[in-house]
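Figure 2 data, in text form.
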Amino acid sequence: MHKRLRLLSSLALLVCLSPGLAIAATETLATVTLENGAKVRLNDDFTWEYVILETLTPTASDTSTQAATAVTSIAVNTTSTINMASTSGTQTTSQATPATGQTMSASAMSQADLLKSTAKGDVRISLAKSEWDDDGRLGLTFDLTSTSSKHYVMIDLDVTLYDDSGNTLDTETVKVWQAIFRMPDSYLRKGDNRQSRTFWFEAIDASQWSKQLVSLKIGEMDSRM
């Protein structure tokens, strides 16, 4: 598995360095199935991501449906050599419109624990715990670790919740890490293991979230050297 991913990563490097083979940014070079059944797509910008969603599209001939693969970025590794270890494996929020007609694939649901961690560069974020308050709100808390020489003062995290059937319930972007101005001790630094505050999600039915299906993706990151 690792050899196959390294080979595909080398192919991505060759394509980007060869002018005659240049292609548009973030174009998919290949989609592979790992030994554990999870599907991964390799991009030409040296990133890889899990393929977790399926879009059901009606055919022109009848009312039957066929699955067309759609990709959600999970655990993106921006190095030129893919490191699977980075994916083994939060106050302002902006509400995003959930994708319609998309459901989590069966293979993704069977590997749901993998989706509870994500990595970007040398920062890794994982779901630490979930809880419900007296008002019926869902609270999520995240663990953050860094092996980067940069000192991170702000990190955005895209959080998508799915019901037990794999349908999208909610997608929000949270500031999973926000340092205090001119307080270096509040920065996320190399070797740090920190925990975010708890972020609360409303209008989530606990009876529809018993499988705790969630996917994470690191967004904007602001750092100090």
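Caption note: Confidence is low (pLDDT under 50) at residues 11-25, 58-100.
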